Amino acid sequence: MTHPLRASHAPSGGHRQRPGQAGSAAVAWRCTCSSTHPLPSDMTARRPAARPWTFALAVLLAMASPARAQAPAASAPAKPALTVSVVGPSMARVPVLLQANGNIAAWQEALVGAEAAGLRLATVAADVGQRVKRGQVLATLADETVRADLAQAQAALAEAEATLAEAAANAERAAGLQDTGALSASQIQQYATAALTARARVAAQRAAVQSQQLRLKQTQVLAPDDGIVSARSATVGAVVGSGQELFRLIRGGRLEWRAELPSADLARVRAGQAATLTTPSGRAVAGTVRQVAPTVDAASRNGLVYVDLRPGPDSDARPGMFARGSFAFDAAPALTLPASAVLLRDGFSVVMRVGSDNRVQQTKVQVLSRDADRVALQGLPADARVVARGAAFLSDGDTVRVVADAPAAAVPARPASR
Q1: Which of 121, 209, 363, 374 has a CA 20 to 30 Å removed from the CA of 77?
Q2: Which residues, at least 6 apart from 97, have a Cβ–Cβ distance to it below 8 Å?
Q3: Of 381, 407, 295, 387, which is closest to residue 342 (Cα–Cα)?
């Protein structure tokens, strides 16, 4: 006999359930039957019992397994990145230098031009780089027309002098006849005035002669001072104008270094202070501070320091050259470290300090002086422990293994940059 509930929930019309739908249909059927009609005891015995504790146990095991896997890693100590030796800074007296950059320029430049206008340039006797003396002929202008004008002025002067002689004689005779009454007073006055006029014409013609003589002298272009020819624009055959530049001289051959310094450092430099610059070829040139500029550039906030240079005969210092140099100050005590302990990173000088936990800390320092072996610096405690060698292979926060400390020798450092 068919159970009524089974007959009512059986699939009709030959419809076959999908495999995935069998379990859901059976669960729905069981829930409906249990809520409306109690199942027979045999069916209840065959229904599988639910086990919620099995799922909970699986979840707890899954959560505990990563913690058990990470526990050994967390408890293990960090592996040292490098085995290093440390060194402490030592005190030494080192000279302090102030570094600067700037251009080399002529102390003063003299512009040599033509004073006579409208004359042809006949000869050029000087060239660029030549050392000249005061009054030396640098170029000559064609003087034919000037000489002709001079001759004309001299002839006019001779004529004026002859006229003066005649007028002076007439005035003298007229003055002698004044008491006789042969000449009236007005006639006598006319002869005297003619003599004065003739004398004035002579003076004018003499001035004209002197002018032409000066113009003839100006046909020679002379050096106004001792120096070195730095530029030449004179060309033979060219007709020059009055004041046209023909040569340019470095007066006395003196050069100066125009060093640029930040406004905060200008007050430290004094006139007469020693300075040394290095040319691009590596040669050193000594100098002395002549003056400090009274103003500071509003854009760069830098001021100029004018340094008189004393280049030797074989020096390669030239005007327009860019050079680096330094100003020397008195020696002062400072901490020094081996040069291998100081690194340059991102444009800053740094050292690697080792802490009590053997972790390194990157510390910025300011370099006062440097040589091949030692570096004088500031910004580091006197009791600091610093990686002596191999600091370039470390990063901030790395753990290191420290071996015996390196000896700290107090060797004075050679002056260098600041």
Answers
A1: 363
A2: 326, 327, 328, 329, 369, 415, 416, 417, 418
A3: 387
Q: How far is CA 79 from CA 75, 198, 199, 396, 398, in A?
A: 12, 117, 115, 15, 9
Above 60 in pLDDT, residue 410? Answer: no
* Residue 54: pLDDT band with limits 50, 70, 90: low
User: What six digits make up the tokens of 413?
Assistant: 């450092």
3-state secondary structure of 397: coil
Strands (E), 297-347: 302-309, 322-338, 343-345
**327 contacts 275 by C-beta, under 8 angstroms:** yes
Length of the chain counted residue by residue: 418
Whole-prediction pTM:
0.55
Q: How far is CA 182 from CA 175, 177, 192, in A?
A: 11, 6, 16
B/e letters for 146-180, b = 16+ CB within 10 Å, e = fewer, are beebbeebbebbeebeebbeebbebbeebeeeeee
Q: Phi and psi (nearest 5°) for 364?
A: -80, 140
Nearest to 339 by CA among 240, 244, 413, 286: 413
Cβ atoms within 10 Å of 41's Cβ, excluding its own: 8
For residue 304, give the amino acid letter. Answer: L
Q: How far is CA 51 from CA 61, 112, 195, 292, in A?
A: 17, 114, 154, 95
Separation of alpha carbons 22 and 339, rounded Å: 83
Q: Is 282 left (phi over 0), alpha (psi -120 to 50) or beta?
A: left
Burial (Cβ within 10 Å: 0-12, 13-18, ≥19) of residue 209: buried
Q: In angstroms, rounded to a whole number, what is the distance separating the alpha carbons of residues 219 and 202?
A: 26
Strand order in the sheet with 239-240: 220-222, 137-141, 119-124, 239-240
Strands 82-84 and 400-402: what pairing?
Answer: parallel
Contact 323, 279 (CB under 8 A): yes
Tens of pLDDT, residue by residue over 121-165, are 999 999 998 999 999 999 999 999 999 999 999 999 999 999 999
The strand pairing partners of 52, in sequence order, are none
